[in-house]
């Protein structure tokens, strides 16, 4: 049985796609699944830095496509988990170095070997986006509670649907509940109503994310991190587990989720 191929996208840069990929992939690997994370952001790779593997790169995605190495040679094994790998992007090549059909074929091959193939999609909706989406069967759209990010997410959702990719989920990142309560930030309910795709999870705003990125260690390794716990719950839902939407914001917030999903 082939593994699941998932693209993590947003349209707008800087909303936390790479952090999402790193943490979801790490949690799934902790659950004993075989996972490969593919950095499709040719020219601007970052997944290797978030995972603390930037000094181990010999080959990259484009090298695989051009036949300069076997895909196994380009894979970097995680420092903590033997069943977690990344394939880094090429940093000195253009995005047209890879074609959508080539990406689709590579993802097909990887899905035969791994339980999960998770693609880190570049920002924007041009060639890099088309490459990343080509090999995916599931899409996760990451947004923050900002009007520009939500508008871009809506545009991306429309493009995903136009590509006949129907299994689309939403992650709301960097939610500050105090600001929501004061009316200074859009609520999760507002965002879901606007975008009309199923919610996969909410990640609270946290300085832990910056610290973990700088250290090159996904924050799900920190048991005390609220953002890390949020990513654990997101990955569990992605894994088919029934996890309630309780993000520690109190009963009122949870009830709004329940009403939203009953409707």
Give a description of the structure.
With 263 residues, this protein is α/β, with parallel strands linked by helices. The chain contains twelve helices and eight strands. The chain has one domain (4-262): Rossmann fold. The chain has helices at residues 17-30, 47-50, 61-65, 71-74, 100-113, 127-134, 147-162, 177-182, 188-195, 208-215, 226-238, 251-262, and strands spanning 4-9, 35-39, 76-77, 84-87, 116-120, 138-143, 168-175, 199-204. Strands 3-4-2-5-1-6-7-8 form an eight-stranded mixed β-sheet, sandwiched between helices. Mean pLDDT is 90; it is low at 247-263.
Keywords:
single chain; 263 residues; alpha/beta; Rossmann fold; eight-stranded mixed β-sheet; 12 helices; disordered C terminus
Write the layout of secondary structure elements.
Blueprint lengths: L3 E6 L7 H14 L4 E5 L7 H4 L10 H5 L5 H4 L1 E2 L6 E4 L12 H14 L2 E5 L6 H8 L3 E6 L3 H16 L5 E8 L1 H6 L5 H8 L3 E6 L3 H8 L10 H13 L12 H12 L1
Parallel strand pairs: 1-5, 1-6, 2-4, 2-5, 6-7, 7-8
Antiparallel strand pairs: 3-4
Helix pairs in contact: 1-11, 5-6
């Amino acid at each position: 049985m082939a593994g699941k191929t998932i693209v993590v996208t947003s349209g707008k840069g800087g909303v936390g796609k790479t952090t999402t990929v790193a943490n979801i992939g790490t949690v799934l690997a902790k659950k004993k699944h075989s996972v490969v994370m593919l950095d499709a952001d040719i020219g601007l790779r970052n997944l290797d830095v978030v995972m603390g593997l930037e000094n181990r790169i010999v080959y990259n995605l484009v090298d695989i496509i051009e036949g300069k190495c076997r895909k196994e040679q380009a894979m970097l094994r995680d420092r903590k988990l033997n069943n977690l790998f990344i394939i880094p992007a090429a940093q000195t090549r253009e995005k047209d170095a890879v074609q959508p059909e080539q990406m689709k074929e590579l993802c097909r091959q990887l899905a035969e070997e791994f339980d999960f193939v998770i693609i880190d999609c570049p920002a924007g909706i041009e060639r890099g986006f088309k490459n990343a989406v080509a090999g995916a069967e599931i899409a996760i759209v990451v947004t923050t509670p900002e009007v520009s990010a939500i508008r871009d997410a809506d545009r991306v959702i429309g493009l995903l649907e136009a590509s006949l990719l129907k299994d689309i989920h939403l992650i709301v990142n960097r939610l500050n509940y105090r600001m929501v309560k004061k009316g200074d930030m859009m609520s999760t309910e507002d965002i879901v109503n606007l975008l009309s795709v199923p919610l996969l999870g909410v990640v609270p705003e946290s300085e832990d994310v910056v610290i973990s990125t700088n250290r090159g260690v996904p924050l799900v390794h920190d048991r005390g991190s609220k953002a890390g716990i949020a990513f654990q719950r997101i990955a569990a839902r992605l894994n088919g587990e029934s996890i309630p939407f309780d993000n520690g914001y109190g009963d009122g917030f949870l009830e709004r989720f329940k009403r939203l999903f009953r409707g």
